Amino acid sequence: MDSHTAKYLGCFFWPLVVCLPLAQGTDCKPGCHPVNGFCEVSNECRCRHGWQGPLCDQCVPFSGCLHGTCVKPGQCMCEEGWIGSHCDTVVHPCSSKPCSNYSRNCVETGNGRYTCLCAQGYMGKNCHMKKGPCIVNGSPCQNGGSCLDNDGFAPYASCMCSPGFTGQFCERDIDDCEPNPCENGGTCTNIGKSFHCSCPVGYEANYSVAYYFPNEKMECPVMKRLQIYELSTRKEISPISWLS
């Protein structure tokens, strides 16, 4: 075979002589894998399905493979210390010392799981939480407040109050009428986490939005009235009112 025909995969002589180009050739990228790669453009190595890399010599592992390698496409061969179909579970989890200093021991329970044996007075998955005031004494917080004790390491408990409440133990309802949010001399009535405005004569509240959240203003717009009288009796009939 001469130097010209060496560039071709093979020739067919019927009905016409047709020669198919080789994956490799003098114009292909040097080092391009002869089986896993091919060249359609000069000096460009294109990979077949399941292969990757500049020279198409690296297999594509199973999708989602984390700590594994492959010899053939679609494999996930776990590295030392890892198991699972995706090589995502550590064989000896206690080797990374996940338990805190407040744990007596780390026990491997299989399938990459572990249990920390907590010292007396400590709790949590890694024994990182102390049985502090919120656990030992119970939450002192009222009205839905959350008890905080810095994972048990605080000397005493504190409270984070729900909206609308204040005080050391969230025992006081915040007066949403102080300062008065009602305009035009309206009277404010505190209602739980909100308030209600009662407007003076000549004004009327928009009752479709009569209840508001704290810090929102409620206007009492002017109520105008058109008086209609019967001419014979001078009695008022069908008064018409509107807001302005």
Describe the structure.
- The protein is an all-beta fold and 244 residues long.
- 2% of the residues lie in helices and 30% in strands.
- It contains one helix and 23 strands.
- The strands form eleven sheets. A three-stranded antiparallel beta sheet has the order 19-20-21, with no helix packed on it.
- A hairpin with a 2-residue loop joins strand 19 and strand 20 (194-198).
Mean pLDDT: 77
| Count of helical regions | 1
Report low-confidence residues grouped into runs of 5 or more: 1-26, 207-216, 222-232, 240-244
Strand residue content = 25-35%
Summing up helix and strand content along with how strands pair, one would put the structural category as mainly beta
- Which oligomeric state applies? single chain
Furnish the topology, listing elements before pairings.
Elements: E1 8-12, E2 18-21, E3 37-38, E4 46-47, E5 51-52, E6 58-59, E7 68-69, E8 77-78, E9 82-83, E10 89-90, E11 103-110, E12 113-118, E13 122-123, E14 129-130, H1 133-136, E15 146-148, E16 158-160, E17 165-166, E18 172-173, E19 187-191, E20 194-198, E21 211-212, E22 223-226, E23 240-243
